[in-house]
Here is the input.
Amino acid sequence: MRLAMLLGPDLEALTSDPEALKETFEEFHPEDVAELLEDLPASTVTGLVRALPPEMGADLVERLSPDRQEQVIMELRPTVAAGLLAELDPDDRVDLLQELEERDARKLLAQLATDEPEKHEETQELLAFEPESAGGLMTTEYVGLAPDMKLWEAVEEVRRLSRENEAETIHYVYVVGFGDKLLGVISLRDLILADPGQTLADVMSEKVMRVPPETDQEEVARLIARYDLTAMPVVDPQEGMLGVVTVDDVVDVVIEEATEDAQKQGGVVPLEDTYFSTGLVEFVWKRGIWLIVLFLGQLLTATVMEQNRETLLATVELALFIPLIIASGGNAGSQSSTLIIRAMAVGEAKPRDWTRVLARELFIGMALGVILGLMGFARGYFGGGGLDPLSFATAIGASILAIVTLSTMIGSLLPMLIRRVGLDPAVSSTPFIASVVDVLGLIVYFGVARAILAALV
Amino acid sequence: MRLAMLLGPDLEALTSDPEALKETFEEFHPEDVAELLEDLPASTVTGLVRALPPEMGADLVERLSPDRQEQVIMELRPTVAAGLLAELDPDDRVDLLQELEERDARKLLAQLATDEPEKHEETQELLAFEPESAGGLMTTEYVGLAPDMKLWEAVEEVRRLSRENEAETIHYVYVVGFGDKLLGVISLRDLILADPGQTLADVMSEKVMRVPPETDQEEVARLIARYDLTAMPVVDPQEGMLGVVTVDDVVDVVIEEATEDAQKQGGVVPLEDTYFSTGLVEFVWKRGIWLIVLFLGQLLTATVMEQNRETLLATVELALFIPLIIASGGNAGSQSSTLIIRAMAVGEAKPRDWTRVLARELFIGMALGVILGLMGFARGYFGGGGLDPLSFATAIGASILAIVTLSTMIGSLLPMLIRRVGLDPAVSSTPFIASVVDVLGLIVYFGVARAILAALV
Here is the structure.
């Protein structure tokens, strides 16, 4: 049976036959089923989830889009919804609750407190952390065992815990002391390999990487990538284990952060949803706000132009090259800002490296300026109308050299400055740099051109 | 002892005392040691690597930057270098060989063929795959066992294999038949959990995700992220196991690809190295090539301006608003292209969705055009010099509305078109879209302005 056939009329029949439905669903990966369900009416999805055993329903719901999750959860009776919530992995449960309206979330939590007090408490603890921090990303389902436990006992314990909950993959056993203090770690592989009669304390590695719960999720991702880990423990100030961040969540974080950075870079307030599931009004707002800010900044170009009205009237040829010249500056500046913002995002460059960056960009900017300046000189030679071709070409070429060099420096230093004062350097997006460079470019252009063409104006 | 102290004079002393060196290094994560060694002279690093036991040296070398690896490997005697190569994980070994000059790589391979024929053969097989494909990313070190093996035997076998080679983390045991045909998979956890007397065939899961070796590494990353896997088997057309791609390599791929996309988006040919380790000449080339192409395109703006020279001479006020107007188009177009390129990169949008995209962007573009057009109208009302304020303001406002709408459509459709014809949509970078939009924007502007101001010109 093909997966797409689930979409057909069979689906209705299946919903009324839970056993057949369960068997059908077991044939496919819940991720694929979830994707298919995105295009069906919410009520159909709710019907399906209701007909499935809770753990299978949870497997499906945790893979739906946030909007979908909200619709389905709110359509279920509170006790059924709470039962489903209880089956979700703790981190997914918290994510879902954070998506809901506060009033709805509170109602569900109250129901959970009645039906599953233990899960409720665990959820409350996780809800206290910022969603984009290690605390918000971690799961509380890890295996923590006492140091004096024998390896064979530990294997038995892992076995028992795994049977209870198949949810998260176990890669490591954490060795914890009084107050869940993190003492060491042992990989599942080493647990099988070592002599079963030894204790965990004998074989554990005491060098365990760990992070406090406030750590930004990007930083956690960077550490996990750097040290090739499959899980990162999260500890409180007394080194007590709070949970673990697993590598599969980190892959999602890295993709998500790259999307956010790309959107910021393009001058869009990051979307919370995918392109197609973002509403049109939200889009107009998230793009419009930046366009309005940029427009207000760009108004300065009209002012600079007005102030040079007389020069333009006297030499209209100067106007002809304005788009070419400011675009060259904008392009060179965008390159620099993109490179620096990304280098800072992956930790290659830090604001304190600004002198090194400055030296490099000054050289690169001048080299690029000379290349483009020569091209501009050649074009200017044939574009000066009745003006002295050599003087006019020199004015164009020199302006381009100056503007490209200046833009390169601004494009690289501005993001570092913004980061230095504690803001997100990605706000110095490509359009933002281009706007700054446009205004400065016009001032430089008119200054250089007037000086060189002084005799003519 | 602090890690940074390794940098001091102690280092020289340590190099001559291999035992103390080994003990010192064991205290730190090789990743941190490698980072520190990046700033030391290559000869010092080579001395250190030579003094360490081969497996520790390999651990260090595989974490150095590609340039560094090349220097160190080429400074070692061929037999020592080949010994070190043999200790590297197969995938890292291949990466390193691909970094070297072809002549050097061939020499090393010949040495490896003499000293370690088995490793040589394994390397040759991997070298046949594209570096950025599943084949290029996979390691050949996986555990593949026969289906009739009892679980307790399998555990023994994993134990034996792990002792021989601690290199890659084992998460799964693959069940393979004749010709290494992939039959099923069992996680290490399930291997411990199930009854030891059962066979692998009894407990294995037959639904194993797999990819052919030519699969692009981005696609592998997407699948691993989607299905929350820790490893992905790579198989030949006869379903024979070739190797596995592990999640830690995938995290690196995702970060690397995001950096490449950001650089393309900013109009830079992707760097192969970090910002600081890229040479200045390479930088000028990788940025200059795009700037030159963009400059040549932008030359069209000067041509359009020249063709409207008479209009400008008659109404110099029109020139004053040119930077403002074309920037609005550029910004709106950049937003669209950024959103669509990213949506295609993460698989949310496909070229065949173009009608849906068009409908959305048309609405969004018009809404944004109306907002910015009204702002332009207000500014134009006070910027027309001696012209009729209402007519002039209308010309500015209408031009902005038209240009923003047009730019939004171009910014979204052009990347899809480029993808459709099989090219990388990221070449339609922000500066590229801005250039196209500048030229079209000027044409629209002069057309609209002339029509509205017809009476005045």
Summary: Chain A touches chain B through 110 residues (CB under 8 Å). The radius of gyration of chain A is 30 Å.
